Amino acid sequence: MTSSTTVILITIAVYLIGMISIGAIFAKKNKSSDDFYLGGRKLGPFVTAMSAEASDMSGWLLMGLPAVALMTGIPEAFWTALGLAAGTYLNWLFVAKKLRVYSHKINTVTLPDFFSKRFGDKAHILTAISAIFIVIFFVPYTASGFAACGKLFSSLFGMDYFTAMIISAAVIALYCTLGGFLAASTTDFIQSIVMTIALVVVLGFSEGMISGFGNVFANVASLDGYMDLFKGFNVATGETMSYGALPVASTLAWGLGYFGMPHILLRFMAIKDEKKLKTSRRVASVWVVISMGVAVLIGITGYSLMKAGIIGPYESATAAETIIVDIAKFLSQYGYIPALTAGIILAGILASTMSTADSQLLAAASSISQNLLEETFKIKMSQKTSLWIARISVIVISIIAVFLASDPNSSVFQIVSFAWAGFGAVFGPVMLFSLFWKRANKWGALAGMLSGGITVLVWKLVIRYFFKGTVLDFYELLPAFIIACIAIVVLSLLTKAPDKEITNTFDAVSKKK
After folding, report:
1. Among 345, 504, 256, 379, which residue's Cα sits nearest to residue 7?
2. Tell me: the pLDDT tens digits for 165-175?
3. What pTM did the predictor assign?
4. Which CATH superfamily hosts domain 3-511?
């Protein structure tokens, strides 16, 4: 092992030990499963903002997005980033405060429980369906995070992919099991800072190696469509692509997913003072715009680095997901300080994946232990037992995710996009109608969840497979979101209106300033 590799390894080890230590510290503050899953609603505005966005971005920010920008040019990366930036802002603007107030008023700590109490579903059908969908989409989402960590260590140290992935998963599961929501939120806040440092350092180093952004853009200027918002260029094949109105619309639809992301919505519910959400919104929105802009620039700069033989060459966007890892490896050759810097960059990639995986583990675990066992199946247990069941659920889900992440050739970007569509379609429309339409009832909510989830699965696995390259080959979130909205309205109007107790609560929340 070289001295530079040793420095990198020590840097990453210090970071991982720090994350586990945070879990151990917050373990003492978890007195019940409610504390474990929502932290007693004690989050401050900055932790709320940055933990929400760090848990949102995942390894996609430092691996998937730069790879897409590098291998296909501006269009897909730009429109995706624009949709996500708009979705982030609108979610904080319209959903955050009202959900915080509403969830506090009806005393809910999980998303499935919120839907059941909001719509007066005493049979907990909505709880069960919500919990099942959370597990269906979060387990592969968590697996994508484990896969990203495995790729990182495998590429960097030449380790066996599966071994590297298991080590990463074990660390994430450990601090989640110990500290729960407060540990995940605090580590996410720290990880967002590490991610930011990594992005800025990588961009600065890359730009310096190419002697300025003038050369960066001059190198891609000859690629027909690479910098055109409505074309695109496939670097692997050398072909110019077409990016019309429908692909733009379906890519912008990524922003719709925010309204249904359980791990983000839980941050809204957990803030200590809803009056501080305006500060959180500003911090989150600015960070998202800057971080995604830098990630796209890294991808564009990556083409020049690849042309110069510093990284790559890559045969596909999936292969290019190691772009930042490869840049860090190149940097580490030039002494202890560059090696330390490379270690920080690589810790940033770990941060981006861990910050999402921990939140997903908690959301999926709460669905099993609290929403299914306690609320749906009415299994009575003490606070201590409930807390242990919650921790065991985290471990079990981690093990399942490890098996799903066993394929080193899986694409982080593709897995994340599928799970994102699932959550956006299943929960996004229901969340919006639950907060803004008094007439919505439990049958409409149920129809919206089922139609949204089924449409995502059918569109992704059937329609896009058999009609690849046609007008029907676009992101499954857009049609699924629209169909779910229609289902909510139609079923709500065709069935009995909500009880007066439910509408009175809705009015009370709506009138609160």
Report:
1. 345
2. 888 788 777 76
3. 0.85
4. Sodium/glucose cotransporter (1.20.1730.10)
